[in-house]
Amino acid sequence: xxxxxxxxxxxYNDIHNLIRKSTPTIAAQFNPDLxxxxxxxxxxxxxxxxxxxxEQTTKKALQIQAIGLSLYEPVEGTSEETLGSEVIRTQWLGxxxxxxxxxxxxxxxxxxxxxxxxxxxxxxxxxxxxxxxLLSYPEAERDALRSATQxxxxxxxxxxxxxxxxxxxxxxxxxxxxxxxxxxxxxxxATDIEAHDLLASQDxx
Length: 205
Ligand code: 5GP
What we know:
Helix content is 38%, strand content 30%. By secondary structure, the protein is α/β, with parallel strands linked by helices. The chain has one domain: 3-Layer(aba) Sandwich (Rossmann fold). The protein is globular, with a radius of gyration of 18 Å. The site of guanosine-5'-monophosphate (5GP) has 16 residues, from strand 3, strand 5, helix 4 and strand 8.
């Protein structure tokens, strides 16, 4: 079957440089205490972002926590993927999730915001964990703790297209680069990295 979707290859260096350029704004406007990588595409970006945040803030190396979410099902025989109807949790923060997030500025990191369903799910569920944790505090303390607990999002690429879900209100949103509705081929998906990088440099031209 012919692959009808337009592909855009990105190299490790492209991603590294987009994160380098984005970090000063994130450090100034949000200054995260904790990074939450959405696996698998958010792992490499979160690790690189930690390097630049360390350089630009007075903080020690930030902790990176991981959650695993899956939306796309591979289509047999093609490199394209089709939209699944559900976000599936494959990994979460554990029973202490709310405790971990409470009182912190939590930055969710993923490689790409396509339909926004994954980010919507991640944020809604993490906020639920915070609300559950708040129940163990006296009512008088809850509002202050709730407002001290903040969430923001960083994605390397945001696709400019109609989104199928919205982020909860009050969420700061940072994107390394805005792109059209293309299929992005990431370097960690490539088996031949030299061939991938060659195509990525052609795509850039
Ligand atoms: P969303 O929930 O925003 O539709 O999709 C988010 C997830 O879908 C991403 O974390 C990623 O795993 C996958 N995805 C969406 N668009 C692309 C793309 O262009 N390239 C790749 N490699 N994965 C994508």
